[in-house]
Amino acid sequence: NRTTVMNAYNELASEGLIEGHVGRGTLVKRSHFEQEDEEFGRDYPSWLLGLTGDEDFALGPDARVLSELASTGERQEVISFAAGTPAQQLLPAEIIRSVVSDGLLTDTRHALDYCPVEGLQSLRRGIAARLRRRGVSVDFQQIMVLSGSTQGLGLLARLLLHPGDEVIVETPTYLGAVQTFRALGARIIGVPTDSDGMRVDLLESILARRSPRFIYTLPTFHNPTGAVMSQERRRRLLLLSRRYQVPILEDDPYGEIYFGDKEPQPLKALDTRGHVIYLSTCSKILAPGVRVAWVAAPEPIISRLSLHKQVFDLNTNALGQWIVSEIIRRDLLDGHLARLREQYRHKRDLTLQAIEQYWPKGTRVNSPEGGFHLWCRLPGEMRARTLLREAAQERVAFVIGEPFHSDGGGQHHIRLSFAAAEEEHIEEGIQRIGETMKRIQNR
Ligand code: PMP
């Protein structure tokens, strides 16, 4: 009735949501924000960011490639070989559910409180024990837990680099690392690679002429090439590091995902003098979402790194650390890894078989013995960008070679990650790429 309506009007007016206008009736009041928009405009004020634009420039031309890759999984209709992430079906949801449901309530202090900057001691001990099994002689004081190995790359670059310093990387290499080093002002020197990893024979002449601050390498199941550095080159690399006093930063996210019978050892297993700073992560062997990774290095480096880490996040999220620590303590990781190895080997084989069947002759593809990636040289003069553009219309995705090159190369290469692609779509996806290639060739 009328009184109810009047009461409602009065209530809205008392909350400032409507106002009466003589001759026009009662209208919804313009919000404070709308009034401000009218006065100042709707553009985001540049003074709020305080940027000139130069800060982003340091990140390089491919600044958005990684964040775009991280979100490709959300686009359902595309068959994607783009992101180097674990398969969704192989994420350890059941394992995590089980450790949380019967351990969390009794261990809340470790799981939910702040923890030491270096990480939960139980996890550091678990990681050290696993590394020892792989031939690396470390104890827990030489381990620091990180919020992703990305954080490790950033912290090490902050610790070791001054703007303008040079860093040696492999060509091609993991684009996230190059981006991080560049963002902190590094100048990148690329060393070519082949199927045995970094061309260490070419490294020496660079070290003789320049003074790089460190050498960044992916010796085992390289991203993107899948290569494993030969034993001989590993030994020579360590020798050069000692001779020229240049530390080595070993990035090893894929070492435990091997398809042969023999587990490859990290480069650090050969390091008797503490020249190798070793990084690895849970992102490929468990889940990127837990954001748990680690660095193994001599204690003076760990203590300097922890000062830098503290400034940024105090500690890696304790819940994620506790979960990983419990998975290791309850001996659940090895079974999970065995499953990953079997499934990813199968996906690699499916992908290679489909390539054999559907791609034109003249394409060269590696057959990696571990990791997530196939590195493909396109036939003749075919350009990766052209293929990507046309393949996108066929709703299939991958990453072009250029962002992995610090020297502008890679125009004729693409990286296919077989790990995350759904098994039942692999053949179809590879066929779509093959047909697109043939169409381009026949023009
Ligand atoms: N290094 C390499 C070689 C990688 O492939 C990745 C992930 N794609 C990372 C580091 C980053 O891993 P995280 O999730 O631990 O930051």
UniProtKB/TrEMBL annotation:
The cofactor(s) it depends on are: pyridoxal 5'-phosphate
- Signal peptide range equals none
Q: Which GO terms describe its molecular function?
A: DNA binding; DNA-binding transcription factor activity; pyridoxal phosphate binding; transaminase activity
Keyword Transferase (UniProt): yes
Name the domain of life this protein comes from: Bacteria
Alphabetically sorted, this entry's keywords are: Aminotransferase, DNA-binding, Pyridoxal phosphate, Transcription, Transcription regulation, Transferase
Record family assignment? In the C-terminal section; belongs to the class-I pyridoxal-phosphate-dependent aminotransferase family. Belongs to the class-I pyridoxal-phosphate-dependent aminotransferase family.
Under the subunit heading, UniProt states: Homodimer.
Q: What is this protein called?
A: Putative HTH-type transcriptional regulator YisV
Point out the gene that encodes the protein. yisV
Full-protein interval shown: 71 to 513 of 530
